[in-house]
Amino acid sequence: RVRLRASQQNIAVLPEHSLYAVEHDYMDTSFRSMYRGLSAFLFATQRRRDLLLGQRMPEFDLSFDQAIAEAPDDFTRIAWKARAAQDYFLLVGPPGTGKTSRALRTMVETFYKERKQILLLSYTNRAVDEICKMLLSITPAIDFIRIGSELSCEERYRPYLIENVLEDCPNRRAVQLRIACCRVFVGTVATLSSKTELFRLKTFDVALIDEATQILEPQLLGLLCLRGMTGVDVIRKFVLIGDHKQLPAVVLQSSVQSEIRSERLRAIGLHNLKDSLFERLYRASLQTEEEKRSRVCDMLCRQGRMNVEVADFPNRIFYGGLLQPLGLPHQSGLLTLAPELIDCEFADLLTKRMAFLPSEAEPGVSSAKINHSEAVLVARLAAAIYRQYLYTSGFDSLQTLGIITPYRSQIALIRKEIAKLEIPDLKHVLIDTVERFQGSERDVIIYSFCLNRVYQLKFLSNLTNDAGVLVDRKLNVALTRARKQMFIIGVPWLLGLNPIYKELLCACGEISRGIKY
């Protein structure tokens, strides 16, 4: 169903049989929100401005120190630290560490038991859906209201949308009472930034903000600096949850264009407009002594997503070996080949946790964004994976297999090749870019690099320097989507021109057809 955002109500201006031009729509709501956010920053309380500009250090309640030291697990420790924080707390959540399902849940339960007013925010509606799923799993049930639109909300969460919750309220007083009685509100940063009327009725003790590394400073400033009817901050303190080693916010400008040259701004850690508030505050925490840094920031280190062999490369190269497996069944053990696939062309690969399959560049094609031979190879491998899992543990289109490739053109080509196989279950397998795969996971991931020319290597990477360690955030996200197996397809000599990719090929070890690289 198609619904026009700015539909024409007067049909007289649209005469029948006329000719029309279809043009790109432009929605400036996000820009207006950011301008309002900058205005809110200028009128913020002095303490909040000083905090965000690095002129005042965050404060903590030291009476929680013993409880933090004696916490029985990581999630309880983090919840206690969030309680102790008087201004803000940062949580680094690497892939598969349970930052939403466990850490965020524990913080919500902790603050809710203390009868705090809680605002839960995220960047995407999909992440807000996940937060709603988490809230509904809590026992006893937590009353919450979601701010947003039915068009961007999963059907099962629509009863919690504010317009549906308030539908039966007979008058304004009943509306005010319903909002006052609910202590948990959920929504995207963009939605809350454009619907600040809520803050005339309510202030919050804490804002828990997921996906914080994907949110630019101007997008978040308005909410953090907003003042209520009495002149106090509508958000007393905030917790930022994210991972600066995964993909950041999408910004059209280059790093050179968005670089900050003002020495006064650089002195407080504002180096580039592409950076998130999370990154700036995290870098600032690295400049403080260990004791203060441990109060303002913590990191989840136990991951339950990836098999240890799948996790080995990103753990060593990007996380300094800090990630430890939870010891779940799928994280160890050997895979056995289904007897029906003994003669399969990929028989030697289907029991490997991580493998590389070489393809060939096609420099003669009209577009560098497609590689026909690689698309065919992906389709054949997908069919083999389908049969392997069908005969062993079962195949689920939404859980078992995912395919990542950088270009829309290659996505379409892979879909076309898979359609030729006439395997109904494979038609529903998610094939998408790394950016759109962030936040998802599958048992098996095929990563097709689709490389034809040297210049494409720059596009495939998203590099950041973290305390002297070069991190490819795009590669990190791609490699950490798989639970059980990771298959990489690309042109060896082209990938070998990139030091990190070359190391990845070496880590894969034995390559198909007995080739060593």
Automatic annotation (TrEMBL):
Span of domain DNA2/NAM7 helicase-like C-terminal: 273-490
Superkingdom classification of source: Bacteria
Every DNA2/NAM7 helicase helicase domain range: 82-167, 188-252
UniProt-listed CDD domains: SF1_C_Upf1
Molecular functions (GO terms): helicase activity
Residues forming coiled coils: none
Protein name (record): AAA family ATPase
